């Protein structure tokens, strides 16, 4: 098997909350009687821990399981009655055939005088309703494996955004210090008449704008922290340290595209549901045609099958499209990361040159700091791409389950719905 190697390893890091940040992040009080707050030590949460906590706290999976159980219980009578009706009809027909073969008369109880409509309503209408119910249950059961991947994808999105915002916030604070020093120098020049009013006002506006950006990042970080706490079920007042375990030295293997395509066509929830709808449409037509055979009913049954087949074809295309898109995202993110890493190396070289120039007195301290800031800023971008690569690889596997979900394959074809009522 051919494998593509995607090397990941920029900097491993632990993103802790800075002491100047709001109390939500650092020195919060622990509520009395709180299990999570039993220790004064912060709750350290890395990616895997976050996934586990989210899955433990979420009721999505258990709610769907309970819904399946409740539906089975509430419809058991309908399904049992439909089966008994069909079994009873089959037993009467077998008994009647046996009597005829022996040359004996067939009692009316085994050969009731019914119109085709009466026969349909007695034996098959209930079977069609039961088939619709069984399809709904099967589709809910098929959906169970998609609950966890969707939840974990949400955790990844929040965590990677949180770490990136934290990186950018730290960088902006460093940049603010540089610009603040520059502004102080500008003020001195302005007071000495060596800088125009307009130039000084521009410098002041730039500093204020940077301050606004920092405040926006703080609010963004607080919002991400709050959303993570809600998703993981972390109580108010519990101290948390979010650990960036995405940035680890990993050798991540990317299989060939066909491997993921095969998995998607085997495991896609949407595809399973579309196939179930098609089989149900065929079953409904068979039930309907067993009692009310005519060209109109045949066409009506065929329409249901055609619609279900059309939906299956659309879902199949969507599955392939989704898995291809997820695969290409891994490849593109890997390429972007390589470029970002080269940019980091280039900025490190420029910072080294700037340091040499500064030591020779050819560059100001502020210029040196800006060169060093460029390194940290480029590193933050590379770090985020590394996180995105880790997530993209996991999302690729998740997509083998969720692919085609954007194409509605739930429920039944309109043909099934049309044929579910009583014959008039």
Q: How would you sum up this structure, described in words?
A:
The chain is mainly alpha-helical and about 425 residues long. It contains nine helices and four strands; from the N terminus they run E-E-H-H-H-H-E-E-H-H-H-H-H. The strands form two sheets. The chain has a two-stranded antiparallel sheet. The chain has a two-stranded parallel sheet with strand order 2-3. Helix 7 (about 295-360) packs antiparallel against helix 8 (about 365-400). The longest helix is centred in the middle third of the chain and has 76 residues, at about 115-190. It is elongated and about 125 Å long. The two termini are about 60 Å apart. The model is unreliable at about 1-35 and about 410-424 (pLDDT under 50).
Secondary structure layout:
Elements: E1 3-8, E2 43-45, H1 47-57, H2 60-101, H3 116-191, H4 197-232, E3 240-242, E4 250-255, H5 257-267, H6 269-291, H7 295-359, H8 365-402, H9 414-418
Parallel strand pairs: 2-3
Antiparallel strand pairs: 1-4
